[in-house]
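Before the break, one more example. Copy the sequence into your notebook; we will annotate it together after we see the structure.
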Amino acid sequence: MRNWFNAHRWTAIFTGGLFGITVLTLLLVRAQLQDDRREAQVSHLLEIDHQFSSEPMISYRRDYAEKRLRDEPAPDEQSQLLGFFGSVGMMLKSGYLDADDVYNDYSDDVFPLYADARGMIQRDQKAEPPDYANFIWLVQTLQAVEERAGGTASHPSKDDVKAHWKSEEKVIAGNSVEAHRPSVSD
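Here is what the structure looks like once it is written out:
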């Protein structure tokens, strides 16, 4: 018995115990950091939603929709909307937002905007390739989420785009992102 409980064995037992506690602590810290990151992503998304459903974005959205329904080409508000979603794309690319969350909240706005502005974006990018890079990245990321989900909304028809602008021209400040979506019966 004396050889079994010598100093070297006790050192090995306690070292193993410390190693186990250290690994467990690291796993708990990792889980806490993941929770903190997710909480921060949700907080950022809520801030963006507040901006999108408040002035001046409400006016930009409504005015753009009214002008596009009158077939005005490239209204001034277009750059505001593209800039807003370009910022969302930059935040998504940087990891401040989750792609599935952005898809759930904004794909119904991003896809029609892209379909409507695609020609202008392509012309501008020929002259200045970095233009709209974050917006294009956002569109491509949301299209990948759409494909993974088995949906088809990433390529709206002209009628779909027009229906979107009709719902946008009715948007009012304080409505959540989902409040202005057309229902199935519309």
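The CA atoms of residues 54 and 64 lie 15 Å apart. The first helix runs from residue 7 to 52. Try to locate both features in your own notes.
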